[in-house]
Amino acid sequence: MNKIERSLPKLESDVLRSFVTVADHGNITRAAEDLFRTQSAISVQIKRLEAEVGAPLFVRQARGMVLTPAGERLLVSARRIIAMLDEAAADMAGDPIAGHVTVGIPDDYGSELLATILADFANRHPAIDVTIACGFSARFEDAVRSKKLDIAVYAGPQGDANGEVLLTEQTVWAGSPTITVPSSAPLAVALFDRSCWWRDAAVDALEAANIAYRAAYSSESVAGVKAAIKAGLAVGILARSTVEPAMRILGAADGLPPLPASNLMLISKQGAASPAMQAMADAIRRGFAAYVAPAGS
Predict the structure, then answer these.
(1) 80, 108, 124 — which closes off a domain?
(2) How many domains are there within the chain?
């Protein structure tokens, strides 16, 4: 065994499962109840894991146990390890994972990506029933918190630490190939029709640049905003990879201000994740890891 092998931390699956459960609950007491163990046993496991990785994984705050940056990094790998172990155990037992999972997938990343994720999931887990909510992702965070969805993908500002980051990309102004940004008249903008990060990002950028605008079109869906953009009726903001060939990206040369980057995040409802939820989370991770933006974006 070489020096590198000797220096690697030894991560036990049982300890990792306790770590993930504490992270999900934000509370050692509830994690101990879920795992049918004492609080002291869970605390000892967390301390042992922190000593093994050489970094604190949680900080105690008024709202409970909050992950440190090191804890957030470890959580991504820990979830994958536990999901693979559960899948292997079920496979060896000849008892495939069964159950039901409700998942929210944003419609702005297209039907092809959704089809890829679902086909992969169905091939691996044919006994799990799936209910899909496909639409505007701003609603998904609240739906997960209220347990209407088990797991979801949603977009938010870079720096939002409420979920596992799947993808970070730039948001851009998009318009039709023939649209001209007016130099004096208010800019016609297509916005989402409810308070959300996307709407706020567009409005904040325009107001910071002292650009007059009017909310010419509003929609509750990405499809509605894209329709107004492609028709040449307004400009709007989209994730760069979701800009379609029938649109063009606008920027400083068109007199428009810069926009912030966005994070696409994976979130799950509080509590111990079921094997079905873990399996779906892995399928989503694989789908976005292999995601390639459509040509022309």
Answers:
(1) 80
(2) 3
Crossing angle of helices 28-35 and 39-53, rounded to 10°: 110
**Which residues constitute the domain of residue 216?**
170-260
Residue 295: predicted pLDDT: 44
Asked whether 250 and 173 are in contact (CB, 8 A), the reply is yes
Write down the pTM of the prediction: 0.65
Q: Give, in degrees to the nearest 5, the angle at Cα 84 between 80 and 87.
A: 140
What CATH number does residue 247 fall under? 3.40.190.10
Phi-psi region of 3 (alpha: psi -120 to 50; beta: other; left: phi over 0): alpha
Q: Are 22 and 46 in contact (CB under 8 A)?
A: yes
134 and 7 in one domain? Answer: no
Is the separation of the CB atoms in 50 and 65 below 8 Å? no
Pick from 45, 80, 115: which residue ends a domain? 80
Query: pLDDT tier at 297 (50, 70, 90 boundaries)?
Result: very low
**Looking up tokens 């870079």, which residue turns up?**
158
Q: Contact, 200 vs 228, CB < 8 A?
A: no
